[in-house]
Amino acid sequence: MTFHAAVFIATSLDGFIARPDGSIDWLTERGEQAGDTGYDEFMAAVDTVVVGRNTYEKALSFGFWPYEGKQVEVLSTTLDADADERIIVHRTLDGLVQTLEDRGAKRVYTDGGRVIQTFLRAGLLNELTITVVPVLLGSGFSLFGDLDHDINLTHNATRTLGAGLIQSDYTVKR
After folding, report:
1. How many CA atoms lie within 13 A of 36 on its CB side?
2. Residue 171 in 3-state DSSP?
3. pLDDT 10s digits, 104-143
């Protein structure tokens, strides 16, 4: 594999990345209080963004395109292939990986619960940056979901951000 795939995501303390209705208000209402999360620096090093349909549609609701200047790939079996000129839609993981390899993608930001789970299960993720927000949601979209085997991680660093957010960086062991 020629590309490095990384996750940069926030979860509730109980491991959810969004409410059952897809809302992330619990995160956005605390965003400014967190201070510098390192996201801008992370994005500056990324050349490609891979998301699923739900994350793509959430990005459309922001009122601005958050992936400006990045190649954006969407892994979806349902999104119209011509949905948006800013993206390329892939129906299969194999097709997506082949495109990343062919295009020479170097650093890939993997975002969205299902896409992260898919990359993790396929052994394609290299690193995880997870910011835990001090709130319990009780239900919603889980970051990891069920796994069929252990995935060992190396803890690299943990830092405390504003508003009680805790951010940890991990490397996926091969």
Report:
1. 4
2. strand
3. 999 999 999 999 999 999 999 999 999 999 999 999 999 9
